[in-house]
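Thread title: Can someone regenerate the structure for this chain?

I was given the following input by a collaborator and told the matching structure tokens would be attached. They weren't. Posting the sequence so someone can regenerate them.
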Amino acid sequence: MRSDNCYFAATGITDGDLLKGVRYQKSKIITQSVVMRALSGTVRRIDGEHHFDKW
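Best answer:
Regenerated them for you:
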């Protein structure tokens, strides 16, 4: 079966042209990700906050 429904996802580890790298703050880690969908042309950027007290 063939499909054009393809996804790409990436999260920055170090700073680059496309994404910021992981940032460490006092009580949280900040990440930046991108998700792309070929079929619709959708591009989403996601800024994540990961709180230490929730782990």
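The beta strands are 7-11, 23-24, 28-37, 42-51.
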